[in-house]
Amino acid sequence: MLIFDRDFEAREQARQRVGTSTGVTEREDSSYTLSDILELLRRYAKVIVGITLFGTLLSAVVTFTMTKTYTAHSTLVFDRNDTRPYESVLELQQLERDKSAMDTEMDLVTSREFLGFVVDDLKLMDDPYFNPNAAATQSAGESAWLPNWLPFAAAPGSDIAKGRADLRERLLAGGFQRDRAITRLYDSVSAARRGESLAMTIYVEHEFPQQAAEIANGVASNYVVWTSTLKEHAAKNTLNYLRTQATALTESIARKEREMAEFTSRSDLTFDPRDDVLRARMEQLNEQFTLARVDEAGAWAKYNEARQLLTKGVDEVGRVLTSDLLSTLRTEEGRLLRTKAQLTAKFGRNHPLVMDADAEIVSNRRLIDEEARRIVQELENDAKVTTVRVQKFQQEVGKIQKEMQNRNLDEIRRRELERDLLAAQKRYDELVLRLGSFDPEQEEVKATARMASFAEVPSEPSFPKPELTIPVGAIASLLAAVMIAITLDVLDKRVRNANAAEAIVKRPNLVSVPSVQWALKPGETPYHHMLANPHSAFARAMRSLCLAWRSLRPGTEPKVVMFCSASAGDGKTTCALGMAAMATTSGLRAVILDIDPKPDGAAAVLDIPNRNLSLGMVLEGTVDLDALIAVAPEYPFLRVIDSRLGLHDHDRLFEELRRRFDMIIVDAPSLDRDDDAIWVCSHVDAVLLVVAAERTRQQDLTEAIERLSVNRAPIAGSILNFAVARETSPRRALRSLPKKLKESFRRLAAGDVENSGGRDSRSVPGNLQRRARFRRTKDVAAL
């Protein structure tokens, strides 16, 4: 008997409900292996094939309904040396074209200014393709222009020459329509080149091949003319500029010479320093001024010394001052002093002669003092005269210095005028030299490029190309279909594999029952297929289920097992019949308790008639249990009890069943129909949840487990029914993929249902079933 520890089971289920969510676990790895991709392709084969066929058909329809576009191309070859005679630097006049120069040329080909020149020259305003508002519509086979797309070959009085003359009027008259024509031509013209080549190919797209070729030739030739015209205009502008500058420099040189002559004359400047009288006068005055300062210093020194000595006495002055009169007076004074001394010695101090001598001495000394003062006054006068002279010299030197300063400024200005004149003369010499070597009127301006290949009228359209667009559309549709399939797979919340079932049930998946719908014959059920093919995949799965059932509790004897499912059509009855048949063939006494009698139940599959007996009658004692046990008419080893449970003692019923049989398989109704399985689960030893792969929703399975946990159902594990057999080798899976897709298309064309859940409970017609059972009687013994 299979015995469960109810308290342990209750604690375990409570822990799972609180600690971990019973919901679906998210995909741990968002990547897809090769097997996952093959499985995804198998599941969504119809969606992928449908979207791919629709996309391919749509691309084909669009390809053949789109307007055909023809592409013509002409080729230009550029000279390696780009001659630029208007350049002033000699190195720039002969430059080699590099990649950047060629890229610039390609940009100029598609510039709006050049394309406007092409529109005007080729008269594209009259073409309805470029100007929908054109007055006259050209036919598809005619050209919209005269064959004069070579402007350089036009005569001076031709339409092109006249068109260039009144280009401004045409631009003003065109206005918005001309701008639209330029835009349309811009979308039709492109340029390309290969590697470092100097050849550039111009591509033009148009609805008509002849016009495409003409426009391509016109664009190429107009580019040659346009660039040559620009170079010619640049050369002429350069020449006019040089001549204008030469004239201006001539006038400037003459004006500067006159201005310098007038300035020199007005400033009294001399070009020879020896002729500069002012400088000589300045040197002379400096010498005289220096001598005068020396004389002044000496005169004032004598005067001051004489004045100081005069304050001390006449005798001291006489030592410094000298004159004839003073010398005479000094001599007379000496004579008088000698005479006095003789008279004093002879007559005494009071003698009249002595007194007369004293009077003469005093008078002489007075004369000496007066003479000394006169001499000092003369020294003072001489010093003052010297000072006045020095001041005069100083004024003259200052005046000359001021004049010299102004003259120096005039010299600086004169040198500036000389430098300006010299610079103007050098510029004039360069301009004259440039004008002598550059004369575009006498020399021919070399064209920038030349046409190397004229456009050929295309014979096949360049777009659309069915051989390219249809395969690309098919591939894009296939990729879109795969992305849609992956999106649907991510949004699909159905249980698809055993891992998902284990994550929800929180129990191991005991066995994965493969889908045998592809191997069934018309009117055949998986149960009968198992009996007829003992070595089929379904039979091996049922044998594995019996082994897993015996291994649930090692050392115990589990007997009562209940099959239940979240929804009808999950293959619950088929699994119950298969397990019962496999257990019976293995020597076990097995019985199927179908508590959900219905027209497509286990009894109907085994062709057992309903005898209108109930289990309640057994519990009441009115009917024996053997009376309720029905045996299949053609398979006497398989026993079935087809009756609902009543409101009686179910424990006594299951005890009686355990006593009589080794395995009691309870086929309970699905949980979406009624709740009998919830309340019967407490009387069984194990509950097996049947999950239909790719059919049972994760939310329904989660709700079913939550409902069973109300009565502490002993859920032993899950059974993944209708599982897809995964290939062990990706190479083998790839080889078998076409066969699987072909089988899917065959089933789709035959109108078969995708899932076999609806067939496990469908009764086989009586006559066909009887004929089939006689053929299987010999094969049953092999089980």
TrEMBL record:
Note the Pfam families from the entry.
Wzz (PF02706)
User: What membrane topology does the UniProt entry give?
Assistant: Multi-pass membrane protein
Q: Which domain of life is it from?
A: Bacteria
Coiled-coil annotated residue ranges, if any: 376-434
Polysaccharide chain length determinant N-terminal domain spans which residues? 34-122
Name the CDD domains on file.
BY-kinase
Which UniProt keywords are given for this protein, alphabetically ordered?
A: ATP-binding, Cell membrane, Coiled coil, Membrane, Nucleotide-binding, Transmembrane, Transmembrane helix
Q: Which GO terms describe its cellular component?
A: plasma membrane
Q: Which chain regions cross the lipid bilayer? A: 47-66
Subcellular location per the Swiss-Prot or TrEMBL entry: Cell membrane
Which PANTHER family does this one have?
CAPSULAR EXOPOLYSACCHARIDE FAMILY, TYROSINE-PROTEIN KINASE
The entry's protein name is Polysaccharide chain length determinant N-terminal domain-containing protein
Q: Which organism is it from?
A: Sinorhizobium glycinis
Print the organism lineage. Answer: Bacteria, Pseudomonadati, Pseudomonadota, Alphaproteobacteria, Hyphomicrobiales
